[in-house]
Each structure stands twice: as C-alpha cells, then as structure tokens.
Amino acid sequence: MLRKLLPTTVCVMILTLLLSSCKLPASTAPEIPDEELMTTPILIVTDSLGMTTQAPEEKAPGEGTQEPGEDFFAEPTSTPLPTVVVPTVTRPAEYTLMPGEFPFCIARRFNLDPQQLLSLNNLGPNDLLDPGTVLQIPQTGTWVGEGRVRNPHPTTHTVAAGETVYSIACFYGDVSPEAIIAVNGLEEPFNLTPGQTLSIP
C-alpha cells in the first residue's frame, strides 16, 4: 500500500513546486541614477552672420552644466546718427545786419543781384554799415557772375579771435548762419571760442 502511495506523493510535490514557482514576481529593469538621466543642454553660439551652431561638449556624470549665456557674445548694434535738419534759406522782405556782415555778404547768401540790393537801399559799393542796419531785400534778380561761393565747403573751420557765426557764413558766401548753427548744435547766444572747430555744410 505504501509503495502505491509513494509515486503519487512525489507527483503531488513536484506539481506543487511547479505551481508555486509561477507566483514569483517578474524581474525589473535595473534602476538608472538621476544624474545619468539628465540631458546636457545644447549651447548655440551665433557669429556675426548668425549662422554657426555648436554642439555640446561631453560631460562626466555629476559635472555641473554650463549656463547657455556664458559664451554668447552679442554683436553690438550700431546706433543711427541723429538727422540734422539744415534750414532752407528764403528771401526775407528785410534783413538786420549782424556783426561781421555787409551788403555783398547778404547778396551772396540770398542769391541777390548786388547792384539791385545797393540801389534799393541807396548805398554805394564802399559804404560801411554798422550792425543793426536794416536792409530792404529785393524779391527779384540773382547773383551776377562768379564768386557767390567765396570758399569751398563742406569743410571744417577753426574759429579765429573775433569771428562770429555770421562772419564765418560771409566767409563761405552762400552758407547761412542758421545752417552753421544747426549742423554744430550751437545754442544762443551762439558765442564761439578761438580754436573751436565748426563743421561747414
């Protein structure tokens, strides 16, 4: 009887072992440390044309990451220069002479026939007029012949003792004091210093 039960008992034990082995948990993937999961940021460096891309360098695990802006050098942008508006010279009905001005100077500046200017104001060609003298300005006629431009410009002018923006305008002929004032950013009362450099339009 015992011999008959032995094979049955062995089979039951083997079957029990087989069934119990199926209940073991499945194996899991190995865990990866957080440092190794971190990605390295891509560093983009642009040249003056904005065309170059630089790949990241390999870093050892645990090594600090580089800030994206550390090696980035932005090209400075050029600042546009302010626009200077040069006043347009128009003929007034009358003009008050300033220090350093004379009738032929005014004729050149406003493109007048100098003889018409002298005649309208009952003046001779050699008359000397004081600053403050009011001249009537003819509304017709133009400068006759050459010489309206007395000295070439644009250029720079070094101020000499006793010069004013008005006398400097007369030196160049067809340049207005208002243009010199505007180009050089002068402020009233437009005092000049000997040795000062002015741009002449």
How would you explain this protein's 3D organization?
With 201 residues, the chain is of the alpha+beta class. It has a domain at 94-200: LysM domain (Membrane-bound Lytic Murein Transglycosylase D, Chain A). The chain contains six helices and four strands; from the N terminus they run H-H-E-H-H-E-E-H-H-E. It has helices spanning 2-21, 34-37, 103-109, 114-120, 165-172, 177-184; strands at residues 94-96, 134-136, 155-158, 197-200. It has a two-stranded antiparallel ribbon with strand order 1-2. The protein is rod-shaped and about 155 Å long. It starts with a helix and ends with a strand.
Supply the key terms.
6 helices, 201 residues, alpha+beta, Membrane-bound Lytic Murein Transglycosylase D, Chain A, 4 strands, two-stranded antiparallel ribbon, two-stranded antiparallel sheet
CATH level 1 class label of the domain at 94-200: Alpha Beta
Form type: rod-shaped
* Strands, total number: 4
What's the SSE pattern?
HHEHHEEHHE
In short:
This protein has 201 residues and is of the alpha+beta class. 27% of the residues lie in helices and 7% in strands.
SSE inventory with pairings:
Blueprint: H1 2-21, H2 34-37, E1 94-96, H3 103-109, H4 114-120, E2 134-136, E3 155-158, H5 165-172, H6 177-184, E4 197-200
Antiparallel strand pairs: 1-2, 3-4
